Amino acid sequence: MSAPKTSPNTSQIIVIPTRRSHSNHAEVARTIGIDIIAGRYGEGAKLPGDAELTLLFGVSRPVLRESVKTLVAKGLLSTKARVGTVVRERAAWNMFDADVLAWHLDAGIDKRFLRDLSEIRLAVEPRAAALAAERRSAEQLAVMRRAVAQMKDEPGASEGFAEADLTLHVEVATASGNPFMRSVGAVIEAALRASFVLSAPADAREHDIAVAAHERIVEAIADADAEAAAAAMTNVIFNGLRRHGAAG
């Protein structure tokens, strides 16, 4: 993953580039999608007409229309006769769509995105940890312990630390035995990885606090203590919010 960089427009937005699209219509959809998410086309704004957009992107009308259809399906646009193509309100966007999440990383993650992500995590991950305490296998517990060991060995600001962090959280979701919880983790995995990079502990003290907090999750799961596992997971999520300044 490319290193995060700060947008030149504001220090509050972190840009984490993702992979480029391969087909023409996918690349056009990606570009327009990023422009919408970044606010260059605001909610309720009307997109330029077909003639202007085909000239801008250097594509045919069928390619442009396929791109628009893709964005309509993802909830970012609506098309109406005699009105044109209009940006929908943010509440209509499919935030569980892998492309929409990737475009957020490209457009730049702000505090609102991080807060929203933490809220869905708080709704799912503590319960997943509680279920994992009841259902985990020995193999799953071993994966979690290896992830914590890697977190201990890696510098807090390293990609290795973030990857170990991600591995632990995904394994907890898997160990819950609930396929819906695992699916949520899989869908938002890119956003989780970005969040972990941004909330990485900046010094030795924060590193030790973060590792100990994750260790408490694993030990509670090992002890089959569902309540303690849920509480430890909640604590980890709030600690991450605190470190990247999105709490409150």
TrEMBL record:
It comes from Ancylobacter polymorphus. PROSITE patterns: HTH_GNTR. Pfam families: FCD (PF07729), GntR (PF00392). The keyword Heme does not apply. GO terms for molecular function: DNA binding; DNA-binding transcription factor activity. Residues 22-90 form the HTH gntR-type domain. The keyword DNA-binding applies. SMART domains: FCD, HTH_GNTR. This is FadR family transcriptional regulator. Keywords: DNA-binding, Transcription, Transcription regulation. Gene3D superfamilies: GntR ligand-binding domain-like, Winged helix-like DNA-binding domain superfamily/Winged helix DNA-binding domain. CDD domains: WHTH_GntR.
